[in-house]
Amino acid sequence: MDATEPRPTFVPTSYPGILHHYTKDLTAFEFDSPVLRSSSNGGRKPNTLLFIAGLGDNLLTVPYVSDLVKTGWSVVQVLISSTASGWGTGTLTRDAKELALCISYFKIQLSRPKVVVLGHSTGCQDIMYYLCRLEVSQQAHGQLDGAILQAPVSDREALAAMMGKETYERSWKHAQRLIKSGRGGEIMPAQITKDVFDAPCSAFRWYSLTSPNMDGEDDFFSSDIGEEQLEGTFGAVVPAGTPLLVVYSGEDEFVPVTVDKEGLVGRWIGVCVRKGVNVDVENSGVVKKATHNFAGCEEGVFGEFLGRVGRFLKAVEEGGKLKGGNIAATTSNNTVGVSGAGGLGGGLVSSKV
């Protein structure tokens, strides 16, 4: 396929691999790949990339996940209680605890040398909660070798734009009233949520996603969050040495057109740098022409993302201490210029992916 041809949004197919039963009720699917087959035949155990999808996503509904094997790492899609329609009655706390169990399964029980997590959309919120909100005693402490955020968008800003001001305000205020009356687990009325979500959603989760007061559990990535709050999220990654890569989509359909994507990512990276977080400045940034999950993008656009991920994973293999890349002078509003490392680079990916 030529690099300028659009990626197919869906092709009926089957995928060989291994289904892992990592807890009594939870599973994870590991895609077949040369590195996995080599391990099965007595070779070195593979480094492992754990993929966490977004709201409403299920196994394989994110179209690019199987292509991640081209990085040379074994790729696993993690299924948690919030997968598919389960997110509406769940919490990030539950998600992060289940993610910790999966990390431990691959790192300890299966003895995988390196384990990195890659979150897509709300999967990024799961990872951020794991890194800066979950009690250290509940983490798979010392077992996570890196984290990647792909399409870390604000659900609050997306829903406000989709629903319109009046409906949006009515929805979060209704959720707030239920929570204050001790009914946070009550399901939101279908007439409020049906136009944006099929899944039943609790008042607590709805408020977490939509509150304009910046007090929602899910609100990590909104463009109006101030520096002090960012220092408590991006600046509070535990442990600070955990390698972090942030990749934003330049044409993400869930991001309002008013959002300065480059400036927003620059603010996040700037906070990380100032607080000593081990962020990959060189490969973090905005992938131009990329949609939310790369559906319909040219192959070259997805190839740029794959190249960024591949170079990050290579750095993790080599010890995980990132060079920091090109950082422009700090400006008066505490942002930094992020030099996006475009192209495929490093011989990791060909122009045909």
What key phrases describe this protein's structure?
10 helices; alpha/beta; disordered C terminus; 353 residues; 11% strand
Task: Write a brief structural summary.
The chain has 353 residues and is an alpha/beta fold.
Alpha plus pi helix count: 10
How many beta strands in the DSSP annotation? 8
Average pLDDT figure: 90
Q: Structural class of the secondary structure composition?
A: alpha/beta
Organism: Arthrobotrys conoides
InterPro entries: AB_hydrolase_fold (IPR029058), SidJ (IPR013744)
Protein name: DUF1749-domain-containing protein
Task: Describe what you observe in this structure.
By secondary structure, the chain is of the alpha/beta class. Helix content is 31%, strand content 11%. It has an eight-stranded mixed β-sheet with strand order 1-2-4-3-5-6-7-8, sandwiched between helices. Helix 9 links the parallel strand 7 and strand 8. Helix 2 crosses helix 3, helix 4 crosses helix 5 and helix 5 crosses helix 7. The longest helix is centred in the last third of the chain and has 19 residues. The protein is globular.
